[in-house]
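As noted in the main text, all predictions were made from sequence alone. Below is one such record, for DUF3187 family protein.
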Amino acid sequence: MHVARTLPSSKLATILRKCAAKVIYCTTPSLLALTLLGSHPAAAYLPVRNQSPLTLPAGIPSMSDAYRVPANQQRYAVRTTVSNNWYVKGTPGDDPYLDGETLTTEARFEFGFDQWALILDVPYLYHNGGFLDGFIEEYHSWFGLPNGSRDEFPKNRLDFRYNGRDSAELNKDTNGFGDLRVSGAYTLAQSATSAHLVTAQLKLNTGNSNDWLGSGGLSFGGYLTHHWNYWRMSTDLQYGLLWQQRSNLLPNQTQQLIGFLSLAFDFRLWGQWYAVAQYDGNTPTWTHSKQPPLRDAHMGTLGVRWQNKTWRIHGAVLEDLKVGSAPDVGFQLGFTYAPQ
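Prediction:
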């Protein structure tokens, strides 16, 4: 004879409550970590630099990862940036004229050791007349923005020059390797929700200064990078100083000490997709000038990033926040690969 035995409803409810409590107890830390940190530790920054032909040779570093590559591991990245430069508002005796585009492709190699990492940045530059002038004029017209007399000049031509205390000129397409940068990074502190890194950078004079591919001198910089993770957001902050040797580009106007700062925020949209906003600024790169291309610079960047444990892919739009201090507009596409 089969006997069916029924649990009292109160006892059944007690057992279900205990089971639910155990499930919540076991899964809450994981769910909380995913909510706070995302599926993978995220770095908020975008690796952009001011691509103005009068700022790029100084060697101001792009924002970088506060999480150093682990010991005995590597990380590789490549990013391509096309920037449209436009500034024709100089004055006699202090007259920069920038009309053209710069295509920069940078490869980054990172190698991890016990307490530090070695980083090598290899840029390849192509100054040319470009193709974005017509698009930018149409873009300005669509949104009722001023064109800054762009339509009064020939489209897609290269004309970089400066006449002041020094003189420099570039009016024909040129390409080649820029100034290589070698860096050493050391972790000050690191956890799942924050990281703090100090980096020393040496910029070599491998780029041809006559073709505006390099400064013709060395520079040395030191900077701190911080990262904080909270809820669905993270923040990166980087700041430092750069000392540059006398430049061959504008030798009598070399600003020896340059300060720079970058601040980035990202927000995890869903899954592995992030929206990013970033500010980059620096003190004047040259002396004896009041013109924006040679003075302090301010640039804003908006981007979207997808990432997992191995890959990080991003696209970004760069804009000058102070007219003439950075390219009028730029676009960047980048890939980072960290083999596991």
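Confidence is low (pLDDT under 50) at residues 1-10, 15-40. The chain has two domains: 9-38, 41-337. These features were considered when defining construct boundaries for the mutagenesis experiments described in Section 2.9.
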